[in-house]
Each structure stands twice: as structure tokens, then as C-alpha cells.
Amino acid sequence: MQTIPLGNTDIVITPLIFGTWQAGKRGWVGVEDEAVVQAMRSAFDAGITTFDTAEIYGDGYSETLVARALANVRDRIVLMTKVFPTHLKAAQVIEACEGSLRRLQTEVIDLYQIHWPAGAFNSDIVPLAETMEAMVTLKDEGKIRAIGVSNFSRAQLAEAMEYGPVESLQPPYSLFWRQVEQDAKPLCEERNLTVLAYSSLAQGLLTGKFGPDHRFPEGDVRGSNKLFQGETYPRAQAALAQLRPIAAKYDTSLGNLALAWLIAQPQTCAIVGARNGEQAMENAQAATLNLSPEDIAAIDAIGRGVTDGLDSDPVMWRFD
């Protein structure tokens, strides 16, 4: 699989990145450890060498599974993880990083990201300058190679860049969720930051596997996803029907068509998870699709049939 630079660094990443939120199990139903470990191994075998996780995913459990799956190929992969907003004071950032290093069984984290801005989820308001100072210290000490942010607005991203080198933004971004295009993405393009799109399949909606009457079991985070609620869900179903002939033209799945559209956007990589090896191998095929400019434009227009009806709130879920 081809690789691209991460921001302005010499770190190279794959356009498809394996996401491991599901490996932490919290917020997900029916995820099995062995199957997820195999999915990570299958993704690596298929050419995906970049893996994203976070300390909050199962309170470190996801990081532990990442190490279990990939520790023996550590020299051939890029590891990304995140510090949660409850740990943004300087000493907490340092401690959180040490915990992630230990769980990931590595001496260095390739990309360490601020998961959400201070104040999110009722966390303390910590000056961004203090958090970034700790991040820069970790980089200077060689414990991390690069700094990124996640779920930041354009203004927050610009402020972070005043205090240290920021190489990436990780926002929710997919064909059905595109608020970042009107906010922080232009700044990323201007400053050569990499956009690491999470929920790149709209939490499975873009695969087309959920019918009009689908309901998620209790405990599944997707039940709180705005795309599955109200009038948005029928609009998404209509858009999927329009996308199917284009997917058939390329002899590919709806999900891979959506991923191929996403990684065709400037400076954008797609984080995509998998529950098992078969899903991981299927997802990897998206990197081989070469969509024509005409089809990229057609897909774009179909997606706007969903996104034009959304408000400007960038948070995809109605969390309690």
C-alpha cells in the first residue's frame, strides 16, 4: 500500500488507518478479543501499517490489545494514541503518556494526540498552553515523535499551533458527516497538516448493511449517532440507493466506495475499524480504487443530500 507523510514530519503513514475504538469494548456490543486481534493482524498483512487507539478506549484495554496483536512488528508500524481531556494538566499528560507507552509495549509513540479539548465531558478547563508544553516536553524527551489534536475547532487548532508543532487533526469526517470542511480543514490544507478522519464509514451506515428499520442493542454507541435518527436516516438510505450503481461500476462495496472517496480528498486519511479479519481485508481494498474525477463529483453530490440537512454541531452523537 502506498504511504504518505504525516504532516510536516518524516513519519510515513498509510491512507487507510486501522481504528481500535471497538477493541476497548465500551460502547460496542458483540466485539471479541481474539477476533479484533486477528483483524489487526489481517490489516497489517494487507498493507495497513498505521494503527490508532486511545487511553479512554476501555480504560487502556484497546491499547493492551494493540500491543498483543502488533508488538512483534513494532518496527514496521506507526502507532497513534490519545490523551483524554480529564488528563490535560501538565503532570497528568506526562503520566498518561507513560501509561500508554507501557500498555502499548513501546518506547515511543509515533503520534500523541489531545483527544478532546479541555472542558469536554465536564473535564477541568486547562489552559491549552499548559497541555501543549507537556506535549512538547514529551517530544523533546523522545517519548513521542509527533503531536496531534482531535475534535478541535479551527480556532482551537490555530491556538494549539501557537504553542508547538501540530501535525494532524482527527475529526469525525465521512461522506455523510462533513462539518470539518467548513471549519478546520482549510487550515490543515494551508499548513500541511494531515486530516485523520474517524468514523469514516459513519459508524457502519455507509456500508449499507443497516436497513430502514434497524435498531441497535442497548449499550451500542451508534444508538446515539445523529445519522441514525430522525429524518436524517431516511435521507441516508436514499443516498445509499444512489451510490449502489457507482459501487457496482467499480465492482466494489458501498463501504469501500465511501472510503475511496474520502482518501481522495486533500491531505485526508481514513481511520476505519474492523471486528474480524475478513472485514479488515475487505476495508484494505479501498486503497486500490482509483475513482474518476466525474465519479468523485457524483459521489460528493449524493453525500450532500444527507449533509445539507445537518446542523453545524460537529459532535456526531447525542451523548447523555
Question: Could you write a compact summary of the structure shown?
Answer:
The chain is of the alpha/beta class. Helix content is 37%, strand content 12%. The protein has a single domain, classed as TIM Barrel, CATH 3.20.20.
Description:
- The chain is of the alpha/beta class and 320 residues long.
- It has a single domain, classed as Alpha-Beta Barrel (TIM Barrel).
- It is 37% helix and 12% strand.
- The protein contains ten helices and ten strands.
- The protein has helices at 33-45, 61-70, 90-104, 128-140, 154-163, 185-191, 232-249, 254-263, 277-284, 293-307; strands at residues 4-5, 12-13, 16-19, 50-52, 78-83, 111-114, 147-150, 168-170, 194-197, 268-272.
- The chain has an eight-stranded parallel barrel with strand order 3-4-5-6-7-8-9-10, surrounded by six helices. The chain has a two-stranded antiparallel sheet with strand order 1-2.
- Helix 1 links the parallel strand 3 (16-19) and strand 4.
- The model has no long low-confidence stretch (mean pLDDT 94).
Secondary-structure blueprint of this entry?
Elements: E1 4-5, E2 12-13, E3 16-19, H1 33-45, E4 50-52, H2 61-70, E5 78-83, H3 90-104, E6 111-114, H4 128-140, E7 147-150, H5 154-163, E8 168-170, H6 185-191, E9 194-197, H7 232-249, H8 254-263, E10 268-272, H9 277-284, H10 293-307
Parallel strand pairs: 3-4, 3-10, 4-5, 5-6, 6-7, 7-8, 8-9, 9-10
Antiparallel strand pairs: 1-2
Helix pairs in contact: 1-2, 1-9, 3-4, 4-5, 7-10
